[in-house]
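To: structure desk
From: M.T.
Subject: fold request, one chain
Message: Could you run this one when you get a chance? Sequence is below, nothing fancy, just the single chain.
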Amino acid sequence: MKILAVCGAGVGTSVLLKMNAEKALRTLDLEAEVVAMNLANALEVQDAQVILTTPDLVAKLEGTRSEVIAIEGIFDLNEIGEKLEKALG
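Reply: Done. Structure tokens follow.
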């Protein structure tokens, strides 16, 4: 399974989301490939099951094949874990 962590430029928030998603997945005992990238590249990806992003980018990701999940607190492992568990479970 593939998860995208997306922000505007692909170097700041997306990397933090990626790292925290990986921690949350370990806690849930789930395996997935988590990839950090920018918005433009994310719009071209066809094989991701889930996209994690900030609320301000959700509308820009509409129309993708992936489930788009808004993360309010990029450092909140509980929020990330709960939303991933709901999406993947």
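Reply (cont.): Helices lie at 13-28, 39-42, 77-88. Let me know if you need anything else for the meeting.
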